[in-house]
Design a protein that fits this description.
Layout lengths: L17 H22 L1 H11 L6 H12 L8 H12 L6 H12 L2
Length: 109
């Protein structure tokens, strides 16, 4: 997670990497399962709530900075932009309307 949401990254390509996205998602899924086994279903609910991203979160602001610096983002087609944003925010859950809002804010930057 720190490699994806570092405020001063050495490599911007890691943040939206599909591979980093998959790895981060798997690690978080394993943590959720372990925590749920140890503490019960209330732990799963806490994780679900924590994984819901919003523009008020630190990770959102960092993701915006990454996308703004990405030289290729504006030239991607709509489907590629959506996948870029989903990979960028992984393992967080981002709603469809948030994806659209995020894309527009970067395109208009």
């Amino acid at each position: 997670m720190e490699a994806k949401f570092n405020e001063d990254p050495n490599d911007l390509d890691i943040s939206a990497s599909p591979l980093a996205s998959k790895i981060t998602k798997r690690v978080v899924e394993a943590l959720v399962e372990y925590d749920t086994q140890m503490k019960g279903e209330s732990a799963r609910e806490r994780w679900i709530n924590w994984l819901m991203i919003s523009p008020k979160r630190r990770e959102w602001a960092i993701a915006e900075k990454y996308a703004q610096k990405d030289r290729q983002f504006k030239s991607l087609n709509k489907g590629e932009k959506i996948q870029f944003v989903r990979d960028l925010f992984s393992p967080f859950e981002i709603q469809e309307e948030q994806v659209e809002h995020f894309i527009q804010s970067i395109v208009n930057y």
